[in-house]
Amino acid sequence: MSRSTPGRLPALNPRAMRITPLGGLGEIGRNMTVVEHAGRLVILDCGVLFPEEEHPGVDVILPDFSSLAGRWKDIDAIVLTHGHEDHIGGVPYLLRERPDIPVVGSRLTLAFITSKLTEHKIVPKTVEVAAGDRRKVGAFDLEFVAVNHSIPDGLAVAVRTPAGMIVDTGDFKMDQFPLDGRLTDVRHLSRLADEGIDLFLVDSTNAEVPGFTISERDLSPAIGEVFASTRRRVIVSSFASHVHRIQQVVDAAAAHGRKVGFVGRSMVKNMRIAQELGYLTVPEGVVVEPDKLDKLPDHQVTFVCTGSQGEPLAALSRMARGEHQIEVGEGDTVLLASSLIPGNETAIYRVINRLTDRGARVVHRGNARVHVSGHASAGELVYLYNTLRPRNVMPIHGEAKHLRANGDLALSTGMAPENVVVVRDGAVVDLMNGKVKVVGQVSAEEVYVEDGVVGRTDERLLAQRRALRDGGVVTVVAVIDSTAGTLAEPVELLSTGVVHAADAQGAVDRSVRTALSKATPATLTDTDALDMLVRRAAERVLRRRGGPQPVVVAVTVEA
Amino acid sequence: MSRSTPGRLPALNPRAMRITPLGGLGEIGRNMTVVEHAGRLVILDCGVLFPEEEHPGVDVILPDFSSLAGRWKDIDAIVLTHGHEDHIGGVPYLLRERPDIPVVGSRLTLAFITSKLTEHKIVPKTVEVAAGDRRKVGAFDLEFVAVNHSIPDGLAVAVRTPAGMIVDTGDFKMDQFPLDGRLTDVRHLSRLADEGIDLFLVDSTNAEVPGFTISERDLSPAIGEVFASTRRRVIVSSFASHVHRIQQVVDAAAAHGRKVGFVGRSMVKNMRIAQELGYLTVPEGVVVEPDKLDKLPDHQVTFVCTGSQGEPLAALSRMARGEHQIEVGEGDTVLLASSLIPGNETAIYRVINRLTDRGARVVHRGNARVHVSGHASAGELVYLYNTLRPRNVMPIHGEAKHLRANGDLALSTGMAPENVVVVRDGAVVDLMNGKVKVVGQVSAEEVYVEDGVVGRTDERLLAQRRALRDGGVVTVVAVIDSTAGTLAEPVELLSTGVVHAADAQGAVDRSVRTALSKATPATLTDTDALDMLVRRAAERVLRRRGGPQPVVVAVTVEA
User: Fold this and answer.
1) Where are the beta strands (DSSP E) in B231-370?
2) Domains of chain B by start residue, with CATH
3) CA neighbours within 13 Å on the CB side: how many for A324?
4) Predicted ipTM beyond 0.95
5) B146 closest CA partner among B181, B179, B113, B115
6) Could you say which residues from 403 to 442 on chain B have a Cβ atom under 8 Å away from some Cβ of chain A?
7) Under an 8 A CB cutoff, do B346 and A52 touch?
8) A342·B345 Cβ contact <8 A
9) How far A313 CA lies from chain B's nearest CA (Å)?
10) Known catalytic residues of B?
11) Which residues does Ca(2+) bind (chains A, B) (predicted)?
12) Can you tell me the mean pLDDT for A508-518?
C-alpha cells in the first residue's frame, strides 16, 4: 500500500480524465479505481482484502473512501467486472454512503452482488449489461468485452469520454478451450485498439509466471482419475464462485455414477444462483440434499464444500478436526480443486495433514494437476500488448512485484518508459491528449471492518492487540495512601498470557514504592499521573526479565 | 504431532531394538529419534522447530524429552547427521540435562554445534567421524555414509546391534553433479543393503514431488545472469548454512570482478567456519569486510546476507524497510537464492514487495531458477528403495502428508504394507528378527522455549495470548462495599486493543450491580469469588456486543 502523504490536487482539465486507483495496487484484493471526467465519477470495482496475521480481529479490509468525501452525488455508477469478493465485497459499504448509485454488471455478477446486498438489507439499483453492449451511463460511454476468468460472465470495460478511452481488463486469462466456450474476446479488444486505447489497465497477478496459463479443460483427466480411483467418498473443496470447476466435478461425478451434495452456506447459495441462471448445468437427479447422501453407499457419494483455503470455520476444516457430521476416513479422497492463496499456506497444509492423519487420500495442486490459475501469464500479457498496442499501460491488480513485472512486460514489447505507469494505490493519474501524468496522491489507507463496523478499528488498536499477543498482559493493582505517598498494601499482579508474572511481584512492589517516594504532591493527587507512575515502575522491572514484554495495565485505588 | 495418550510400554526384548521418534514425524523440524538396545540409548539428531502464528512469544520448539526421564545415564551418544537447526538446535537443551553425552558428527557439523554450544556456555565432548568410518559407541556399532544435502558434510548413519541394523538417511538428495563432488554414496549404502537393512528411516520432505531434484550446478546460469545484468550492487540472501550456494555466489562475483561482503551475524560466523575448514573456497581478496565495500563503485559490490525467510530482524528485512545502513535502490538486484519455507510466504513476499518499491530488481525462485531443494524427490526415493530393498521402511522428516506419500512410494516398489511403518512422533517401534511392530506411545508434546527458559510456556498460556490478540483486554475495576453488598462507586473499564469498550460501561455497571444483589454473604466476603462474579457479569455484557470477545480481568477492591 502507498503511504505517500496526500496533498492538494491540481484541478482536472475539462479535456482530461483522471484515474485514481484506491485499491489493488500493491496488494491483491480490495480492487477499486475511480475515473473522473468533467466533474463526474465512475467507479470500477469495489472489493475487499482479507486480513492477515497482523490484523487480529479484523473481518475485512476496505478501500479508503475518504477521497470521495463531498463527491458522492457526482458518482454516475459502480461498474463490476466480475463477482469475486476482491472486486465486489466493498459495495455494501460504498452503498451505505449513497444507496442509489447504479450498480452495473453482467447477469451473474449482479446476481452475486444482489444476494450479498440482501444480507446487508440493501436493495441495489442495478443495470444489467452483457458482453458486446455499449451504454451511456452519466458522463461515461461504457462498452463491455467478454473476458475469461475463474468465475463465469467476467467483463472488461472500456470507458470513453471526450478525453479519451481507457480499458480495464478486470481479472482475466486467455483460456483457448474454456468450459463454457466464452473466450476473452480479442477481436472485440482489437476493434477498441483500432479506435485507440489511451490507457490500458491490465491484471498483473501472474505477470511473473512465464508462458501461458493452461486450459481449465486440461484438469479433467486428473479430476476424473480421482473419481475413478476412489473406493469410498469423494469430498471436493473449491471456491464457492468457481462455477466451471464445480461443473467439472459435477460432470465427473455423474460420469462415475455418483450423486453430489453441496455443503457450506456460500457454496449452496452460489450454486443455486448459478444453476437458476444457467451457468451450472446439472444432469437430472445428480445434485441432491447432503442428508440424502447418507442413505447411499459410499462409492456413490460426492460432497462439494467450502474451506479450500483452510478457513477454520469452513466445512473442510471442521471435517479435518473431526468436528463435522461428515466423518472423513480411510478410503475417502479429498480433492482440493483450488489455488493456494499466499498467506493461507500454513492453514491449508494443516488441513491436508489432519485429513491424511484420518486416513483420507488428499489430492491437491501439489501432487496432481487439479487447479489452474484464473489469471493471464506473461505470455498472454505480451500477446495482448503486441496485438492492441495501447498508448499507455497501467498495471493493476497485484503486489508491487507483480505490477513491476507487468510493467517490464509492456516495456519488453517496445513501449516507451513514459507510457508505462507503475504506481500504487492513491496515485492520481491524469490522461490528456493521449498522455498520462501522475499529478498527486490521495489517501489510500487500509480501512478495517470489525463486526460490521467500518473504521473504528485502527492501526493503534491492532498494535495493542499484537503487543498483547506477543507478551500477554499484567494488571498491577496498587492501593495507595496518597496523603502518606506510600502503598497501603503490597501491589497485586494479575496476569494473562505471561510466564510466571507472580515471580516479579516483589520487584514491582519495590519499584512502585521507590517511584512513589520520589513523586510530587501533584502526582499523588492525580489519578492519571498515579496510573502512569505505577505502570512505568512495573514496566521497568518487567523489561529487565527479557523476552516478550507484557502490556501493563495499572489500577490505582485510593486507600 | 501425535496426541495419542502415552501408556505403559512392554519391556524391550534383549534381542530387539526399540526406535522412538520424538520429533520430525508430523511436522518438519525438531528431528530426533531415540534408538535403544539392551538398556542403552543412542540419539539420532536433536533439532528445533520454529514457531508459527499460533505460538506467539515462543522462540523455538523442542522435542519432548520427558520419556528420557531416568534414562539420561543410559545414553551412549548423540549422533548428528548434519548441521541444520532442525537437526542440531535442540542439543544445547539436551546437554543441559547431562553435559557429558558424547556428540558424534562430521567435521563441519561439529564445528557448527560447537559454535552454538559456546553461546550456551557448554563445552561438548565431541567425537569426529567421516564418511566411511565405522565406530563402536557404547552398545552401538555406528557406520557413516556420505550423503548430499543443502549443507556440506552430511552423513547417513547405520546403527548395528545384535538385534539388527537400522539406517537413517538424515536429510539427503542425490545430486549427480554436486559442487563439491561429494555424492550420496549409493555404493556404500548398497554394501549395507547386502548385509541387510532391517529398518530404513528415510527423509520424506519431497516425497510428493515427482521426478528428480535438479542439480545445484544447474543454478549457475541464472545466478551468473544476475551478476552479468546488474548495473549497481548485487545483494544476495540465502541460508547462512548453505555453503555450496554461497560458493556459487562467491565464484560468480569473482568472475564478474566484484568483491563480496558477508552481512549478518550467523552468515559471518558460518562462512568463517566454512572457510577455515576448507568447505568454502574464496579466491584471494574477493571477500572483504562489508564497510570496505563502501569505497568501491557499486558495480564491484556484492553483499551476502541473512534474512531469506523474511525474518523481521534479519539484514534483508531491515534493508527492505529502509532501516539498514545498506540502502537498496534503483539499479540494485536482490537475489533470494533460497527456498520458501511454508509459513514464511507472507513475510517473504512483503520483503520482495518492499524491495521492489525501493526500485530494486528482485530475483527469486518464483521468477528464475535460483534455488533447488536439498531433499530427494519421489524419483530418487523410489530408486533407493529398488536398489537397497530394505526389510522395513519408516518415513521420517515430514508432515503427515509427506510421510504418507513416502510410505506410498515404498509400497509402489512392491513392499508389503506390514513392512512400511508410517507413524507419528512418540510411536514406539520394536524391531526383532527383521520384523517391526508398534508397541506403544510415549509423550511427544511440543515443548516451548521462551527467552531461553524451557517448558514454562504452555498451551494454556498460548491460548490466552491468542485470545488477547483476537479480542484485546478489558480490566474492570469494581470498588465494593461488601457489607452492603453493593458497588461503592460506578465500575471503571480500562481497555487495551478493544474497540470502544467505554460504550459498555453503563451496561457492565448494571450487570455487576445485579449480580451483587443476588450474591450470597459467602461470595461477598471471598475475594476470588467476587473477582469471578465481576468478571462473569462483564463477560455477559461484552459477549452481547458480538465480534471478537475481549479477555476480562476483574479487579475488586473493598471500599
Assistant:
1) 234-237, 259-263, 301-305, 333-336, 361-363
2) 17-212+373-448 (3.60.15.10), 217-363 (3.40.50.10710), 459-558 (3.10.20.580)
3) 24
4) no
5) B181
6) 404-405, 424
7) yes
8) yes
9) 14
10) 203, 375
11) 57, 59
12) 95
